[in-house]
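Q: Could you fold this chain for me?
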Amino acid sequence: MRTLTLPLLAALALGGTAFNSDAQQRGDWALGVGVHQVNPKSDNGSLAGGTLPLEIGSDTKPTVSLEYFVADNLGLEVLAAWPFEHDINIAGVGRVGSTKHLPPTVSLQYHFNSAGKVSPFIGAGLNYTTFFSEKTTGALAGTDLKLDDSWGLAAHVGVDFALSPSSALRVDARWMDIDTKVHVDGASLGTAHIDPLVYGVAWVKHF
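A: Sure. Below is the predicted structure, expressed as structure tokens.
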């Protein structure tokens, strides 16, 4: 998560001089626009009976979130993004393909100190990931690659630093349980365990 070091330092500096923000009350909305990196875990499983260790690459794309406060300080958030694209590698073989995916996620999250300059939050919810535009290259060139869609749990933590009474700079991180069955030319070769950390920054507007 070293890519967040400079944004986090900047956020801390801004947070120290920011205005107090409005408390988040039932019926309020919050719109977030930012950029996030999907960083799959280091061990992505193996195919063909454990003989082909997978390595899934990272990607960074714009994101948008919309949160509705169902109670004071308690919000229901929907996350959307521009499609992420990941290289698919096999250890010792190299790049064998790529895929795009969309990971819409719904989370229920609680905001602490929502009227303060610094407001941490924590949440949990459900992720749905759909894979598409799979391509093959290298050792799998010419084959038909298919990744099944995935349902899984998700967790969300972050901090909002007030920029004005109605806006904030957000630094956050998510964990998503994403597992997908891998098919080549119709044959099931096993499961890819992606389970990424998703982290980044966003500008958040309350209204």
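A (continued): The chain has a mean pLDDT of 90.
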